[in-house]
C-alpha cells in the first residue's frame, strides 16, 4: 500500500543477507515462496505458533539476540511439553518503522545461535513492515512417534503433579525491571538480580524431557502463563490440582527476593514466563520419572496431586492453610 | 507485561468462541498448546508463512471477512504455485488496541468460509495484543507426492512463459481506492470499479492448477509483487523473460481503466496482488497445459519466452517497441 523506504534494503536483500544463512534442508536458501519437508515415516508432526510483540511480551530495548532466543524458545517449549523433538521453524518478522540494520543483525545472530543450540533450522517465512511495534511470529514443527503426543487434558484423579526446574524466576525478573527505585526488590543483591533477569530474558525449553514425557506423563504443558493459571487449564472436568506450596521449587535467587518481600510469592506462583514443564504422572511412576529426568540433567519436583473437584488450584502451606489461586495479573492479553 | 483489559474476554475465551469452531482434525478443539498432524505416506509437506498488516497490506476499514479471506488466500496461493494441495493452517492474530468483538466475529466468519471453500482447516495458533496496527500471520501447510514440489528457479532458456487469469486487476483496484476525486480512474463505470475493487480485496488462489503445474511446469510462483518484479525473481542465472505485452491477459474492466488512463498499464504490469500463477513450460507442452487448465476452469495465456541474458524482463509491444520493466512502486516493504 505504500512505497519502500528509499535508503533501506528491500525484503529480498534482507532475507539474503540475514536469514538465508540460517536456512535448513528443504528451504532452498529461502529463494522460493515455500519450503518442502519430507516427514519421517512412522512419525507425526507437532505444530505450534506463538507470536511475541514489542512492548507486550518483551521490552523494545531488550538485546535483539535475546528477543530472537525468546521468540524461538517459547515455541520450542510447547513442542517439548508435547513430547516432540524440534524439526524446523518458520518466521514472520514485522519490523517497526524505526528498525535498524544493527538490530536485525543482532536478531538474526541470536536466532542462528538458538536454532543451532536447539537443533531446529529455519525453513521459511517472511519479513514485513509492522506499521507499529515490532512483532515476531514463529511456527515451530516437531516430530514424535505416531500417536504419542502428550495432551494437556490427560490427567487422572490421583496422578502426581510435577514441575521441572524452578518456578517464578522469570516473573520476579520482570517484577525487578518494573520495580520502582524504593521497592524492597530493587535492593536485591546483584548475583540474584542477574539470575532473575536472565530467566526473564532467556527461556530454556526443556527439550531433554520430551522423550520422558512420552513415556511417563498422563498430561503435560509448559508453564507460560503462570503456574496457578496453567494448572487450572490442565484440570477441569472434575479434576482440581492440590498443591503443597512448600514443595514448589524455588531458586536461591527467588528465595532471596521472597525474603525481601514475602508478598512476591503470589507473583512467583501466578506470574508466567517460566517455560518449565508442568505434567502429571500416574502414582508410582514419579520416582522413575524423576530419576531419569535427573540423569538427563533436569531436576523435577513433585508438588501435589490431582484431586476430585472443580475450580482453580488449591495451594496449602506447611501450616495447613489452604487458598485457591487464580491466574495472575501479568496476562499477555 | 501489562494487565488484561478489564471488560474484554481473555485469550482463552476468544479462542473458544471464535476459533475453536474452525478447528480441524488434530487440533483437539484448540484446547492444547500444539496440534498433531499425521503426514500422508509418500508425500512431502510444503510450508509457507505470510503475514499481512493493517495499513500496509490492507486498509484498516476493509470488511473483516475480506481481511480473513485475503490472509488465508495469499498463503494458499503460494501452495498452489508449488503444486501442493492445502492441508491445514496456523494463525497468529495480533489484535490492535481498539479491536472489537464485532470485528473478530466477522474475521472468524470470513476465515471459516474461506477455509471451507479452500479445504484447509485451522490447526492452531495464538491471539495476542498487537500494541499497534493489527497483524495476521498465517502458516499454511500443503501436501504433494514426494519430490514433486515445483520450484521458482527451474526455467530453461526456450521455455514458454504462462500466466493464469488476468493481470493487473488488483493493482488497478488499489489505484482506484487511492485515486483523487478528479482522476480519470475515479470516473470509471461502476461495474468495472466493482470488479477491480473485488480483485484487490479477494485473492483467488489457483488451487485447481496445482496438479497441472506438477505435470507441466519447469518453474512456478504466484504473482504477488507484480508481474514484472516476479518475472525478474524467477529468472537470473543467464535467463531473462521476453514478454509480448499484447499477450498479457487483461480483464474487460482493466481494459476500460487503461482506456481512461493509458499510463496505468505500468501499474497493471508492476503493481502486485494478482495472486495468479506465473509459470514456465517446455516448448511443445503449452498446448496440453492450456487445454487441461481450461478444462479445469482456469484460462492460461502464453505471454512470452525464456531468453538468454540477464536483467529485468523485456516487454515488447505489437509495434516492436521494447522496454525493460522493473519492480513497481507498490512494494509491501
Automatic annotation (TrEMBL), chains A, B:
Molecular function as annotated in GO: ATP binding; magnesium ion binding; thiamine-phosphate kinase activity
Cited function: Catalyzes the ATP-dependent phosphorylation of thiamine-monophosphate (TMP) to form thiamine-pyrophosphate (TPP), the active form of vitamin B1.
Domain of life: Bacteria
UniProt entry keywords in alphabetical sequence: ATP-binding, Kinase, Magnesium, Metal-binding, Nucleotide-binding, Thiamine biosynthesis, Transferase
EC number of this enzyme: 2.7.4.16
Annotated source species: Methylobacterium durans
Protein residues bound to Mg(2+) 3: 33, 78, 222
Binding, Mg(2+) 5: 225
Gene name of the encoded protein: thiL
Pathway: Cofactor biosynthesis; thiamine diphosphate biosynthesis; thiamine diphosphate from thiamine phosphate: step 1/1
PurM-like N-terminal domain mapped to chain residues: 32-143
Catalytic activity: thiamine phosphate + ATP = thiamine diphosphate + ADP
Binding site for Mg(2+) 1: 50, 126
Residues noted as binding ATP in the record, renumbered to the chain: 125-126, 152, 224
Descriptive protein name: Thiamine-monophosphate kinase
Ranges where the PurM-like C-terminal domain occurs: 156-310
Residues that, per the record, bind substrate: 57, 273, 330
GO biological process, one term: thiamine biosynthetic process
Similarity-based family: Belongs to the thiamine-monophosphate kinase family.
InterPro entries, per database record: PurM-like_C_dom, PurM-like_C_sf, PurM-like_N, PurM-like_N_sf, ThiL-like
Keyword Nucleotide-binding attributed: yes
